[in-house]
Amino acid sequence: VIYIEILYFSSLTERAIARHEVREIEQRHTVDGPRQDVTLDEDDDVVIIYNRVPKTASTSFTNIAYDLCAKNRYHVLHINTTKNNPVMSLQDQVRFVKNVTSWKEMKPGFYHGHVSYLDFAKFGVKKKPIYINVIRDPIERLVSYYYFLRFGDDYRPGLRRRKQGDKK
């Protein structure tokens, strides 16, 4: 019973913090408009979020973004989540929205990572990021995953995965 009460209290606290942060975002975007300390023209106020699906050539696609970012004057940022969990808590969602919308120095930006879609309009954001993705034939994706688990990849050759080398 105590454990459930702590979880319930933690959940209530997280929701209260998230509601406060959502109000902050709404005030910034409805009353004052975007932050005035750094002004970006329309072309520079763009964020693309590539919410990567595993084993769909996402590493190759992301490498292209890194190769072209200096030449085309945009920023690339990897979204790293705790334990590679693509689903964020409500509090983390609010923080993510706040960071993406207010980090003027990282715009225009290409953000990539294994994250779920997040509806920025739900948080009162008018200038929403553009989501893109790559898909792959499901059987080809499964075959790629099999070989990835069995032999690893070239990007982290020293990393040993649990099922790597399993002959089953």
Question: Can you offer a commentary on this structure?
Answer:
The chain has helices at residues 2-30, 58-72, 90-102, 138-151; strands spanning 47-51, 75-78, 109-113, 130-132. The protein is α/β, with parallel strands linked by helices and 168 residues long. It has one domain: 3-Layer(aba) Sandwich (Rossmann fold). It has a four-stranded parallel beta sheet with strand order 2-3-1-4, covered by helices on one side. Keywords: Disulfide bond, Glycoprotein, Golgi apparatus, Membrane, Signal-anchor, Transferase, Transmembrane, Transmembrane helix. Belongs to the sulfotransferase 3 family. Its main location: Golgi. It is found in: Golgi apparatus membrane. It is a single-pass type II membrane protein.
CATH superfamily: P-loop containing nucleotide triphosphate hydrolases
Looking across the biggest beta sheet, what order are the strands in?
Answer: 2-3-1-4
Could you state the order of secondary-structure elements as H and E? HEHEHEEH
Q: Largest sheet, if any?
A: 4 strands, parallel
Number of domains: 1
